[in-house]
């Protein structure tokens, strides 16, 4: 259309205007600006406080206590008047969704999390098991038409009044899925070429964190940066993502992947590492040694986590499959200074 209008009006002013628009369009399409993270806002409660649940590694059509965990999430969600739910990924086992009409979407999500308090927005990231299915289906807006709660993107930002969340697509960081996929097939559409995908993502997360003026900064990914569980630390994230979190004073890193509940405080950075991967199948007794000064909780059963955040205080609790509180922690930011 632009070139057509240019040919019809070939005076000097139109030519100059055309080249101006052409240059601006080109700069907007340059690779450095293509990968900007999508941004959402969630209105918190009137007083600005926020409460939400975190669950991971859940989609097993109700099996392995998924339904029991869902029941307790509903009870706790009601009590805390939650604003939304965060899923740390591995949303559909074993191999993600085969398409947008996969019945697993209803069997593992809509028909399981039925409590009134869970009829809120769910912010989901993808896990490695999700990448074994049709990733584009799980990211498709068609799923939102089937169940408006379900929002899944690769990486995105969620802003509330006092907390900003940075959701990071961690599966493409893990070398093994590329070099040693065993008998699994991963859907890397939208990820290749891998190196530019990862470097753009890291740049975008870093600049989004630097721009953030939020009181609390929370990063969410599927894979653990630090974990005493079966998979342990994800070295690729330790070397590539962790320095960015440390440099930008991130308060929490939330993840799943290890099927347990964990709380680790990094002695160096003071970042709180919360693993919530107990949405269904758990791995009993599967624990590595960890410095007890840093490991505040390791629970090798099913469950989930809640967070309640005000301007100055963040409290979080871990629950087992019966709704019992396993562990509680409170953090304070007394000073208004961001240092
Ligand atoms: Zn996983």
Automatic annotation (TrEMBL):
CDD domains: MPP_ACP5
Enzyme Commission numbers on file: 3.1.3.2
GO annotation, cellular component aspect: extracellular region
InterPro entries tied to this protein: Acid_PPase, Calcineurin-like_PHP, Metallo-depent_PP-like, Metallophosphoesterase_PAP
Main location: secreted
An annotated Gene Ontology molecular function: acid phosphatase activity
Residues engaged in binding Fe cation 1: 57, 90, 93, 259
Reactions that this protein is recorded to catalyse: a phosphate monoester + H2O = an alcohol + phosphate
Keywords for this protein: Glycoprotein, Hydrolase, Iron, Metal-binding, Secreted, Signal, Zinc
Cofactor binding note of this UniProt entry: Binds 2 iron ions per subunit.
Pfam families documented for this protein: Metallophos (PF00149)
Cofactor(s) essential for the protein: Fe cation
Residue ranges of every copy of the Calcineurin-like phosphoesterase domain listed in the record: 51-260
Subcellular location: Secreted
Residues where Fe cation 2 binds: 90, 128, 222, 257
UniProt family annotation: Belongs to the metallophosphoesterase superfamily. Purple acid phosphatase family.
Protein's name in the database: Purple acid phosphatase
Species whose genome carries this gene: Morus notabilis
């Amino acid at each position: 259309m632009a070139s057509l209008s240019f040919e019809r009006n070939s005076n000097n002013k139109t030519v100059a205007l055309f080249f101006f628009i052409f240059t601006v369009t080109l700069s907007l399409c340059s690779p450095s600006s293509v990968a900007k993270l999508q941004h959402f806002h969630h209105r918190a409660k009137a007083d600005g406080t926020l409460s939400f649940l975190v669950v991971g590694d859940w989609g097993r059509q109700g099996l392995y206590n998924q339904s029991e965990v869902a029941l307790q999430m509903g009870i706790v969600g009601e009590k805390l008047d939650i604003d939304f739910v965060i899923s740390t990924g591995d949303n559909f086992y074993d191999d993600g969704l085969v398409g947008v009409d996969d019945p697993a979407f209803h069997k593992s999500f809509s028909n399981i999390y039925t409590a009134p308090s869970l009829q809120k927005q769910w912010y989901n990231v993808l896990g490695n098991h999700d990448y074994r299915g049709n990733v584009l289906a799980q990211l498709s807006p068609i799923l939102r038409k089937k169940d408006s709660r379900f929002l899944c993107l690769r990486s995105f930002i969620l802003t509330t009044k006092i907390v900003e969340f940075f959701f990071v697509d961690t599966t493409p960081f893990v070398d093994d899925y590329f070099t040693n996929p065993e008998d699994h097939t991963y859907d890397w559409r939208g990820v290749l070429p891998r190196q530019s995908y990862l470097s753009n993502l890291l740049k975008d997360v870093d600049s989004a964190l630097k721009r953030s003026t939020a009181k609390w900064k929370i990063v969410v990914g599927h894979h653990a940066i630090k974990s005493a569980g079966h998979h342990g630390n994800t070295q690729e994230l330790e070397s590539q993502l962790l320095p960015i979190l440390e440099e930008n004073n991130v308060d929490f890193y939330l993840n799943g992947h290890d099927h347990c509940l964990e709380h680790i405080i990094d002695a160096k950075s003071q970042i709180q590492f919360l693993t919530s991967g107990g949405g269904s199948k758990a791995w009993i007794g599967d624990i590595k040694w960890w410095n007890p000064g840093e490991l505040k909780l390791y629970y090798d059963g099913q469950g989930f986590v809640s967070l309640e955040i005000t301007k100055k205080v963040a409290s979080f609790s871990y629950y087992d499959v019966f709704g019992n509180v396993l562990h509680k922690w409170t953090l304070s930011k007394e000073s208004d200074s961001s240092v």
